[in-house]
Design brief:
The chain has 256 residues and is mainly alpha-helical. The protein is 81% helix and 0% strand. It has one domain.
Length: 256
């Protein structure tokens, strides 16, 4: 395919994606929910969790980088020094890139044990009067988080050629792919506090579009340096507002 038409396809795809994303997010009040989540995340009840998220995120990235770098050190070497230097450089760049790709899934899994505090604090402030949440077993939390982490890692590794070879379009692919994964994952973190597994799946399927839009916004936060370190906390607070809005819409539909 000639370069000019290919570039035109990428530009058109990017314009369509951002126009679609802006329209959907504003129509469904997702941006308002995001602003409320930012405000709540830096409030006194969540400052300790934010500090914990920051510490866990930094530690997770360092451990990931060491593990990936150690794995890539076994790349083959040749007898020519300039080529070996280039292989070492590619190993360092590859370690940083793979660590960046794996980081959102790993930090989300680890923070999954603390996100209950975030949801509870947001509910207490913005949705008082809610009854006690459903009791979740450690097994349920671990299985749900591990499944999301493994799926996220596998799909992002499969998409790695797109990330490397199609600049511009790679951002859209990252947002769409991880938007689905994070929308589902963070929605389950919040919804399973109030609904059982079957009911959670039913609501997620009924409002799949809005859950996906929320996931795209969460994936976008993980693209922003420094913000990605506290993204799990903000994402959870954000998804609480999304879930409550969907619950209200569902209740209104039932009473019609």
């Amino acid at each position: 395919m000639p370069i000019a038409p290919a570039r035109g396809i990428v530009v058109s795809a990017r314009r369509w994606f951002w126009r679609w994303r802006l329209t959907e997010l504003t129509e469904h009040g997702m941006l308002i929910a995001l602003f409320r989540a930012f405000s709540a995340s830096f409030s006194p009840p969540l400052r300790k969790v934010m500090a914990l998220s920051l510490a866990i995120a930094v530690l997770s990235f360092l451990v990931l980088w060491v593990v990936v770098a150690f794995s890539l050190r076994y790349l083959p070497t040749l007898g020519w020094r300039p080529v070996n230097w280039l292989i070492d450089l590619l190993g360092v760049v590859g370690a940083a890139l793979l660590s960046w790709l794996l980081f959102p899934a790993v930090v989300t899994l680890i923070m999954g044990f603390f996100l209950e505090r975030v949801a509870a604090a947001v509910e207490a402030t913005d949705y008082p009067g809610r009854g006690p949440p459903r009791r979740q077993s450690v097994h349920e939390i671990v299985v749900s988080g591990a499944r999301l982490m493994l799926l996220t890692i596998a799909l992002n590794l499969l998409a790695l050629p797109v990330y490397l070879l199609l600049p511009g379009l790679n951002i859209a692919v990252f947002l769409v792919l991880n938007g689905y994964l994070f929308g589902r994952g963070y929605f389950e973190v919040v919804a399973l506090r109030r609904l059982d597994i079957d009911a959670t799946a039913a609501v997620r399927h009924r409002f799949s579009g809005r859950v996906f839009y929320g996931g795209v916004m969460i994936a976008g936060m993980f693209l922003v340096p420094l913000l990605n370190l506290v993204a799990p906390v903000i994402a959870t607070a954000f998804m609480v507002h999304v879930f409550e809005a969907l619950q209200s819409r569902e209740a209104a539909r039932i009473h019609l």
